[in-house]
Amino acid sequence: MHRFLIERDSTQDGRITVAQDDARHMLQVLRLKVGATFVGFDGSGLEHEIKLTSIDKNRVQGEIIRTYDPGTEPGKKVILFQGVPKMDKMDWIIQKSVELGVTQIVPVITQNSVMQFKDKNIEVKLQRWNRISREACKQCGRVTIPEVKAPLLYRNALELWSEQVKSERNHIGVFCYENEGKKCLKDLFKCYNIDCVNMAGIFIGPEGGFSGEEIRIAEEYHISPVSLGKRILRTETAAIAVLSVVMHEMGEWTK
Ligand code: SAH
After folding, report:
1. Does the C-beta of 27 come closer than 6 Å to ligand 1?
2. Within this chain, do residues 33 and 94 fall inside the same structural domain, yes or no?
3. Residue 229 Cα, ligand 1 centroid: separation in angstroms?
4. E strand or H helix that includes residue 26
5. Does ligand 1 lie within 6 Å of residue 232's CB atom?
6. Ligand 1 pocket, 151 CB below 6 A?
7. Among residues 19, 34, 68, which one ends one of the domains?
8. Considering the chain, what percentage of its residues have pLDDT values greater than 70?
9. Most buried residue, 13, 110, 118, 196, by CB count within 10 Å?
């Protein structure tokens, strides 16, 4: 059955309104008619089976037949702190990490990021990134839409992580640094009882990597870097590879 986004807070009295972009797709591309059934979700954690009851220009309304939890959301929290990469690589990283079950994405502006804080396009990009997150949820069956936060300066991103860990004792920080000579990801996991870890933070640098000063600042926050092996991965490869491994280790790749 087709999945559509419904307007938030439109589920009163068992009736819903389909979000505008989706209504257009529903009518103009899929040509659904009154009486058709479809799946709707508004991003707040549940899914509905819906019967299409009225079409008025591009406004589509429906009646909820049943509401349920499809069980597609991860049980654990994973935040991706991603050094903002060049061009549209962030789009790809967002799409893939939402599919893999990320909880939140924090674009991080580091010394080597091409995007800087005064970038006039930040607002436009942010809207685009959140739209990609919604679309990825629609495609992969998730019912909670991960937020892509407004880009943060590096130190503020570390601050955010240290705030987060205050509320979750069982957490793991995975800070990826290609010049780390001693500790690899496997060593890091050995230090934890990974089944009990409820929250992970993954830090990935942009194309230019983290600077020496940034590594020093991470240490101030008691975050120690890990290596991902002998080869240098592109930033987008590193993000998706680490997220996959962390998800697997945290037991998220089971039915
Ligand atoms: N500019 C650097 C590479 C940066 S790769 C260079 O050419 O030397 C971009 C990001 O991916 C890095 O900041 C790091 O977070 C991650 N990464 C890539 N390969 C890695 C590896 N082998 N070990 C740890 N992190 C890695």
Report:
1. no
2. no
3. 10
4. none
5. yes
6. no
7. 68
8. 100
9. 110
